[in-house]
Amino acid sequence: MKTYTGPTLGGATATITCPDWCTVDHAYWDDQVDDCFHKSELLEVNLPRDRANHPTPVVHPMLGAELQLHSTSPQPSAAAVWLQLSEYKADGLELDLVGVDSLLAELDRYRVGLAKMRGLLAAVDFERRTRR
Questions:
Q1: Which tens digit of pLDDT belongs to each residue from 91-118?
Q2: Are 49 and 80 in contact (CB under 8 A)?
Q3: Which side of the chain, N or C, has fewer Cβ within a 10 Å radius?
Q4: Is 75 left (phi over 0), alpha (psi -120 to 50) or beta?
Q5: Per-residue CA distances from 48 to 55, 57, 61, 74 (Å)
Q6: The pTM is what?
């Protein structure tokens, strides 16, 4: 486990221990140890190019998620999944466990619907390619 020794909000110096999954370089950001966040690696949805091979209209993924944990608060509300909805970090949702479960259910529903759509597209594609 890595540790970080840095300033506190009150001007003292303290040390925190990062969880194994924390990817933040707290020293680089000169974080205050009693008011910073541990963050996991960003999980991203990378969009494919469209069928004309144009690049996606966004530079960054439109959907990303990372686990965030406040450095000193023991409250359940101090841990959340940040769901990033665009390339701009401010566009997102802070999800608790119930919110993540709800999102997972919605993604499952979406995947089933998209798989059905894919099947319809495959049937149309096959019919148009074989009808000559």
A1: 889 999 999 999 999 999 999 999 999 9
A2: no
A3: C
A4: beta
A5: 8, 11, 10, 40
A6: 0.80
pLDDT tens figures, 52-73: 776 666 555 578 899 999 999 9
For every residue of 27-95, which 3-state class applies, written as one string?
HHHCCCCCCCEEECCCEEECCCCCCCCCCCCCCCCCEEEEEEEECCCCCHHHEEEEEECCCCCCCEEEE
6 membership: H or E segment, kind and range: strand 3-7
Q: What sign does the dihedral 66-81-94-86 (CA atoms) show?
A: positive
Length of the chain: 132
Q: Which two tokens stand for residue 120?
A: 């319809």
